[in-house]
């Protein structure tokens, strides 16, 4: 029993021998809160591994390190069922877009977090480079609807001369790739998003993850240089030295195979 915690790290109650192996009591609330603790532990471990492997030539021992996720899905031909699901979604939102009151489309589009990155920083080339390294982990949320909603269609209609509904639907369908990532957005292909930025949803254009916020903070703290690593579990996959314009150098501590 020596070395094992004797009290729950959630509530501080005394633990049985079996409970002390995990350091937690059986209270569901302690287990729920512990998810954050475990995540912090994994992050700390990943950061230690990343820092230990930094090349001396980067002179980055004191640089900020951003942790990015990594898309691990496989590429596969897109099924007809997925394309049909997108078509049905488009048909529905085009009808709903026609029912939106004029001028209200702007507030009808869903907003999302930028994790504190302001509009001036959001266009920095480094962020696109970091997303390229990650491979679009967040696009898994796009499914077969790509976050497209009536407000997205309304925005398109507002910008252009009148368009037939069928023309809009066929236009969106024309960008579906033949091969895409499994369990990810229908527009998510090997080289990233196949949908032109101007007709993507507001969510897709706006979202910036926590890892990107760490990149921005790292650049500020490191006076224009920072390290960012894509990580699976606690294993760094690709570690890169960045400046504001993008990647300066990369190393691959672990093979993805
Ligand atoms: S926003 Fe974050 S999760 Fe999404 S592609 Fe970029 S780095 Fe990856
Ligand atoms: S439309 Fe593009 S950016 Fe949006 S979730 Fe799909 S692949 Fe990602
Ligand atoms: Zn407890």
Give the overall average pLDDT. 92
Strand numbers in spatial order across the main sheet: 1-6-7-8
| Total E-strand runs | 8
N-to-C order of helices and strands: HHEEHHHHHHEEEHHEEE
Low-confidence stretches: none
Q: What overall form do the CA principal axes indicate?
A: globular
Q: SS-based structural class?
A: alpha+beta
Concise structural overview:
The chain is of the alpha+beta class. The chain has 10 helices and 8 strands. The chain has a domain at 75-124 and 136-206.
Characteristics:
257 residues, 4-stranded mixed beta sheet, two-stranded antiparallel sheet, 10 helices, 14% strand, binds iron/sulfur cluster, binds zinc ion
What does this structure look like?
By secondary structure, the chain is α+β, with helices and mostly antiparallel strands. The protein has a domain at 75-124 and 136-206. The protein is 41% helix and 14% strand. The protein has helices spanning 17-22, 28-52, 80-99, 105-108, 119-122, 125-134, 150-159, 165-173, 202-206, 210-221, and strands at 65-68, 75-77, 179-181, 188-189, 192-193, 226-232, 235-243, 246-251. The strands form 3 sheets. The chain has a 4-stranded mixed beta sheet. A hairpin with a 2-residue loop joins strand 4 and strand 5. Helix 3 crosses helix 7. The mean pLDDT is 92.
Please outline the helices and strands.
Layout: H1 17-22, H2 28-52, E1 65-68, E2 75-77, H3 80-99, H4 105-108, H5 119-122, H6 125-134, H7 150-159, H8 165-173, E3 179-181, E4 188-189, E5 192-193, H9 202-206, H10 210-221, E6 226-232, E7 235-243, E8 246-251
Parallel strand pairs: 1-6
Antiparallel strand pairs: 2-3, 4-5, 6-7, 7-8
Helix pairs in contact: 3-7, 3-8
The chain binds iron/sulfur cluster (SF4) (2 copies) and zinc ion.
């Amino acid at each position: 029993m020596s070395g094992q915690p004797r009290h729950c790290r959630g509530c501080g109650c005394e633990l049985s021998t079996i409970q002390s192996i995990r350091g937690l009591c059986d209270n569901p609330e302690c287990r729920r809160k512990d998810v954050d603790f475990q995540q912090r532990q994994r992050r700390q471990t990943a950061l230690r591994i990343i820092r230990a492997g930094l090349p001396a030539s980067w002179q980055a021992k004191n640089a900020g390190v951003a942790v990015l996720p990594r898309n691990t899905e496989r590429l596969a031909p897109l099924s007809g069922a997925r394309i049909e699901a997108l078509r049905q979604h488009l048909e529905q939102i085009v009808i709903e877009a026609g029912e939106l009151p004029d001028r209200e489309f702007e507030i009808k589009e869903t907003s999302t977090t930028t994790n504190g990155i302001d509009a001036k920083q959001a266009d920095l080339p480094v962020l696109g480079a970091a997303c390229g390294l990650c491979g679009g982990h967040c696009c898994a949320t796009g499914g077969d609807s790509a976050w497209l909603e009536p407000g997205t269609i309304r925005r398109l209609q507002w910008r252009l001369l009148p368009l037939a509904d069928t023309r809009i639907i066929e236009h969106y369908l024309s960008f579906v790739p033949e091969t895409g990532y499994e369990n990810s957005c229908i527009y998510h292909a090997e080289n990233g998003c196949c949908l032109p930025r101007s007709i993507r949803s507001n969510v897709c254009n706006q979202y910036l993850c926590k890892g990107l916020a760490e990149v921005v903070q790292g650049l500020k703290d490191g006076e224009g240089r920072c390290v960012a690593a894509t990580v699976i579990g606690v294993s760094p996959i690709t570690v890169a030295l960045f400046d504001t314009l993008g990647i300066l150098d990369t190393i691959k501590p672990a093979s993805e195979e």
